[in-house]
Design a protein that fits this description.
This protein is an alpha/beta fold and about 140 residues long. It has a single domain, classed as 3-Layer(aba) Sandwich (Rossmann fold), CATH 3.40.50.1010. Helix content is about 40%, strand content about 10%. It contains 6 helices and 5 strands; from the N terminus they run βααβααβαβαβ. A 5-stranded parallel β-sheet has the order 3-2-1-4-5. Strand 4, helix 6 and strand 5 form a beta-alpha-beta unit. Helix 3 packs across helix 4. It is globular and about 40 Å long.
């Protein structure tokens, strides 16, 4: 089971995204194995892709939401509710600066759901999350 981060969701739905082809190829090969969104990734996708300044988006959050809903109708989709807390000292023995907190939260959510966070981001230090190294899936070329 894979939790797609915001950039993965955008890359799937934006045909002009620099990683669109690579991400779509991955998605087509893996989505039937199970994939997920959560409140944070849904919110981030709708906020960014639906913003009027996003160059290839619809400039409308309602349209962005409909596109995401259509994607979530694909086989293998599961919604993961927020079920972890940054205040859990067993899960997060230490915390980085605030720039990476959301990424680490998503990684911990993937661990909680016995899945993996799939991302294009190579800068996440998975060691901040108990079990994070095994659940951190970087999509490479």
């Amino acid at each position: 089971m894979y939790l797609l981060d915001v950039n993965m969701l955008i890359a799937v739905l934006d045909p002009h995204h620099e990683h669109h082809d690579k991400v779509v190829d991955w998605f087509l090969a893996k989505h039937r194995d199970g994939w997920a969104t959560c409140p944070l990734t849904e919110n981030g996708f709708i906020r960014i892709f639906g913003h009027r300044n996003y160059p290839n988006g619809p400039a409308d959050t309602l349209v962005a939401r409909r596109l995401l809903m259509r994607l979530c109708a694909e086989p293998g989709y599961v919604f993961w509710p927020d079920s972890v807390s940054l205040m859990d000292e067993q899960r997060f023995k230490r915390l980085p600066d605030s720039k990476h907190l959301t990424d680490l939260y998503l990684l911990a959510l993937a661990v909680e759901n016995k899945g993996s966070l799939v991302t294009l981001d190579r800068r996440i230090d998975a060691s901040y999350v108990a079990g994070g190294e095994k659940a951190y899936a970087i999509l490479t070329a």
